Amino acid sequence: MDLAVREFGGEGPPILLLHGLMGCADTWEPVARWLTAHGRVLGLDARGHGRSGARGPWTVERMAADAAGVLAGPTTVIGHSMGGLHGIALAAARPDLVRALVVEDMGVDFVGRDADAARAWFAAVPQPFPSLDVVREAFGWPRPEFGEYMARCVRAGPDGLYLSTSAEHAADVAGEWARTAFWPLLDAVRCPVLLIEAAESVAPPGQMAEMARRLPDARHVRIPGTGHLVHAAAPQAYRAAVEGFLTR
């Protein structure tokens, strides 16, 4: 199956960007602009997202292996949401490939969450969209940055714009999170880790702090006034945290 990788530029040690559920590599563009000062920046479209092919299994293990397949050596991995979980799984399975890891607003245990409600929400999104402005409006309340994020992840159809990820595939991805706790992955992570938590996080309260406690070399930062898209809601604070980590 074909996986799409975007080259953002830069020279030096590789940096791989992993996006969130229903996102795509293009959502990283504002972050990638300054990351190119730190290395060669790549963005992967996860299977079923962006320009990559769409075929199961829709599991953390398989999608982390996809990311491993595009790497040739030790890499700094930066993941948001789903991409953060895949980064943890990649670091656990292939410590030879992950020299440092940034996880933005993601937990490892969502067991008990209502996967059927998520499936219904994804399916209820009205498509096609007549314009990008309608996409921004549909997803941008109460946080406009999420509307802008989703506007980067659409494809043109004969009758309008469609999200590049199908609701069914997204629900299958989230369904595994509702069934499986991924705490054991943390025991196999050996690289330095930066955990960035939103003030209004999707992770259960206190979970990211507990993740930092269980990891051998981790720092946990909670950024005030932010929702799930920390890097878009507070770009300067996010940048300061990540660049401080990379410099270290």
Structure description:
The protein has helices at about 30-35, 60-70, 80-95, 115-125, 130-140, 145-150, 165-180, 185, 205-215, 230-235, 235-245, and strands spanning about 5-10, 15-20, 40-45, 75-80, 100-105, 155, 160-165, 195-200, 220-225. By secondary structure, it is an alpha/beta fold. It has a seven-stranded mixed beta sheet with strand order 1-3-2-4-5-8-9, sandwiched between helices. The protein has a two-stranded antiparallel sheet with strand order 6-7. Helix 4 packs antiparallel against helix 7 (about 165-180) and helix 5 crosses helix 6 (about 145-150).
Compact overview of the structure:
With 248 residues, the chain is of the alpha/beta class.
- Ranges with pLDDT <50 over ≥5 residues? none
Order of helices and strands: EEHEHEHEHHHEEHHEHEHH
Share of helical residues = 25-40%
Any idea what the shape is? globular
Record field, number of beta strands? 9
State the major sheet.
Answer: 7 strands, mixed
Radius of gyration: 17 Å
Q: Strand order across the biggest sheet?
A: 1-3-2-4-5-8-9
The helix count comes to 11
Strand content: 15-25%
Tell me the structural class.
alpha/beta
For this structure, the quaternary state is single chain
Average pLDDT confidence is 96
Span of the ends, CA to CA: 37 Å
